[in-house]
Amino acid sequence: FDRAPTSLPQDRHFLQFINRKGQFSLNVLILGGMNRKIYHVIIKAPGSYHDAAILEMSRVNAHIHSRFPRVYCLGDLAFPLSDILIMPYNSDQERNNANALFNVNHSAARVEMTENIYGILK
Questions:
Q1: 24: which residues sit within 8 A by CB, 6+ positions away?
Q2: Which residues are within 8 A (CB) of 101 and not within 5 positions of it... i.e. 6 or more apart?
């Protein structure tokens, strides 16, 4: 999972669409996979919404359970831990070498599966 703010025209005067950088935006959450395939897209969250709130308001968990019952997803620390979502270790837990190595591999997989999709779409 990952999300990226997308610019909106300046004539939209809704405060909820102002992101943490003070710009009007719409958050887009993509569930991407290997080979840069997009499995699910959520395009309805105002720029001020947190990643976890976007995931919560979506029905993507039910979607994943129904279509991919044995699949785990990777997310960053902005998402809550769940039965389908695996996050990296936080900085306190990363002091262990095995945890640090897990985080390196987790990050590399997320870049391949989601970050690159945003780069291609932009």
A1: 7, 8, 9, 10, 12, 17, 18, 47
A2: none
With tokens 């710009």, the residue in question is 23
Q: Decide: pTM greater than 0.90.
A: no
Q: What's residue 106's pLDDT?
A: 93
Mean pLDDT of 61-88: 84
Main-chain phi, psi angles of 36, to 5 degrees: 60, 30
Q: What are phi and psi of 64, to 5 degrees?
A: -65, -45
Buried b (16+ CB within 10 A) or exposed e, 82-116: eebbebbbeeeebeeeeeeebbeebeeebebbbee
